[in-house]
Amino acid sequence: MKLTHLYATELSEAVTQIHPDVPGDLQLQLVNSSHAQELALPDKWWQDNLLGRQLAEKDFALCRQAVAQKYGGHQFGHWNPMLGDGRGLLLGEVENRANQRIDLHLKGAGQTPYSRQGDGRAVLRSTLREYIGSEALFHLGIPTSRSLCLFDSQEMVLRETPETAAMMIRTAPSHIRFGHFEYYYHAGDSAALKRLFEHAFIHHFPEALSEKNPHQALLKAIVLRTARMIALWQAYGFVHGVMNTDNMSVHGITFDFGPYAFMDNFVSNAVFNHTDHQGRYAFDQQPGVALWNLNALAQAFSEYCDTEQIKQTLMLFEPAFISAYQQTMVNRLGFSDVDNTSLDLVNRFLTMLANQQRDYHQHFRTLSAMDPTQAQCDLRDEFVDRDAFDTWWQDYRAHRQDEGNTDAQAALMDSVNPVVIARTHHLQRATDAARQGDYSIAAELIEALKTPFDDKWADTVWANAPVDDVQVSLSCSS
Length: 478
Hints:
Order of helices and strands: HEEHHEEEEEHEEHHHEEHHHHHHHHH
Strand content: 5-15%
Number of helices: 16
Shape: globular
Helix content: 40-55%
Number of strands: 11
Distance between the termini: 31 Å
């Protein structure tokens, strides 16, 4: 393993070096073995809690140059320059087996200069949710940070109630956020902003350097990647919960998991963050918020791109988002082509789910098993307004047959409609068991989420929707 510290070295004014503050009883509980192998990390780390013990050692190479990053961000639309890694440390970068540089980031590592009166800890509840949630997204094909390992302890920390502390190591191409660029722009520090751009070009977006205007090319790449990520969030019913610009990655990956949730019943304006009283980050607001955030980021490019260049680049978001979203949604109904009929069928199906409070995920998956050559469909029994479903079904089966090859359509649907989703009640069950020292439930859920489209999970508890359909409210505390 070759550990580098390029971000900390090249942008030294943007970091503070700190050694992790590790609970004395830190215990390794979960390891993402396949990801560890991809990163060519030492096997011995995962044996006999070795890594848990070494994180506390002053001379351990992984912690020797750990740093907290400084950045700003728009939080619920308001600029805040006083942000940074308040509980996390960038340990450094390693190369994976594909020769790609990947960040290792330790979350829950203690206080930093950016903790803002916080204790620098992460609690088991939020840490386990992030660990499972990021892997769930990854295996659905949604761009995301990854989970490497999770540790727990019996150290108590106070949130709404006392909870036990935990730590995790997550990975990402980098931890550069929209808020990094915003911070130097709003501070008027052109020299530091220039160094940040140079770092991003050299290490993460080298292809932009061959373009006529590299900065516009970089902004374009961020816009398009963000559009694709948001399209997949919308297609799979994912609600991030806290889309502040400091929680947005320039790589277009899902980042900083807080009060996130996958919807159960389809509710277009679903909000799960109990502090989001105005619904700013509701499910149906996410595309608009993403574009708002990109506009905030784009201000940092104004020294290198004129107003028209920035405007034209930002205008790429909407068509890119719509294209990716529509293609995924028509695929979920078994159609290859995006046309008016397919889109109408998607919209009508979503309307039925919303109006009749039906489960978003199960009904898409069940539909893939229905025979479009049959005049009647058993799925109708799931709806109160069966006449509306029958009318939709006749139009749907006609269009399926117009496209032909129903076997291929069914296979397509099975490949994009998951059997297993990281539903909130599954996460709660895993958390409740972990609090008692039992990580077998979490491990079983993670195993199912690795192959979410596989029918082998259909008769397991992991395919089940919650018994009661009350929309939960999740804490933003972590």
